Amino acid sequence: MSKTIIIALGGNALGDGLAEQMVAVKATARSIVDLIEQGHRVVVTHGNGPQVGLLALMNDAYTSVSPYPLDVLGAETEGQIGYVIEMELDNVVHHQDTVAVVTRTEVDRDDPAFGDPTKFIGPIYDEADARRLAHELGWTVKPDGDHWRRVVPSPQPKRIVQLEAIRRLVDSGFLVVCAGGGGVPVVWTEQQIHEGVEAVIDKDLASSLLARDLGAGVLVLATDVDGVYTGWGTPEQRRLDRVTVAELRGGDFPAGSMGPKVEAVCRFVEHAGGRAAIGALADIEGLVAGEAGTQVVAA
Q1: Is residue 280 part of a domain?
Q2: From CA 45, how far away is CA 176, in angstroms rounded?
């Protein structure tokens, strides 16, 4: 029986502009072809932090109409990036059709994240520009390393709404792109309907949930660094090559960058018993094979 692999492409690794995205996805598509030829079933998810941030900037600059809420901007990036990935995969995978699904992810309307925005989106600024934009546009801004960025609420993903549709597509032989940007955040209302909310969902946590619920064997988080480091930015920094969940949970990783990735792989390995990997976009085949990046195992 073929193994299902979830490959989560980081929004930063994909780049900001369309040209950068096309180059990154072309290279990734060739690696995915090799995985498929090895007998794996592949599901692709992707980030959207830089892209949804740029859309939000355009949104705020165009004052003739009311601004679109973040859930709608998230859906726009799912369509945009999903289209690019879908087309490039279809251009190289000739025996399998690719389907991009604009995916909703259910969150809890009482999630404490709504009172404490932490998810970075959009470009970087110096402190003065960040504080000016926060004053002018009503943003919340926080330090991100040596720079400043906008932060928005990032509630925990509870349920992938289209899970069964995604499962049927995978089981029917389609190469599926889904849960882009963590999915469009929705809540279940007292009227028994879904309603979009002003938030973004961490794509790694959503990918972890999707991988668990699909019964995937491997979860790969492909990003713009080659693995998880201890002592990052210091003379003592060291990459973790193979690590258990317990060892990884004992580390201290920034909440705005590597922290959610570490939490995502730990949740998957703990609940699904599979293997997870974090590493560079260019090393996808090695990450799947257990030969590159940081490999996370149960024990």
Answers
A1: yes
A2: 9
Number of compact structural domains in the chain: 1
With respect to residue 154, please indicate whether it lies within any of the assigned structural domains: no
12 is an active site residue: yes
Give per-residue pLDDT as tens, 39-83.
899 999 998 877 887 887 787 777 787 778 889 999 999 999 999
Is 80 contained in some domain?
Answer: yes
Domain assignment present for residue 52? The answer is: yes
- Active-site residue 158, yes or no? no
- CATH (domain of 44): 3.40.1160.10
Q: How far apart are CA 105 and CA 200, in angstroms?
A: 10
Looking at residue 1, what is its pLDDT?
Answer: 41
3, 12, 15, 142: the catalytic one is 12
Catalytic residue, chosen from 119, 217, 279, 286, is: 119
Structural domain range at position 82 = 4-104+159-297
pTM of the predicted model, to two decimals?
Answer: 0.90
Which tens digits make up the pLDDT trace of 112-126? 999 999 888 878 899
Measured in degrees and rounded to the nearest 5, phi and psi for residue 43 equal -120, 130
Q: Identify whether 3 is a catalytic site residue.
A: no
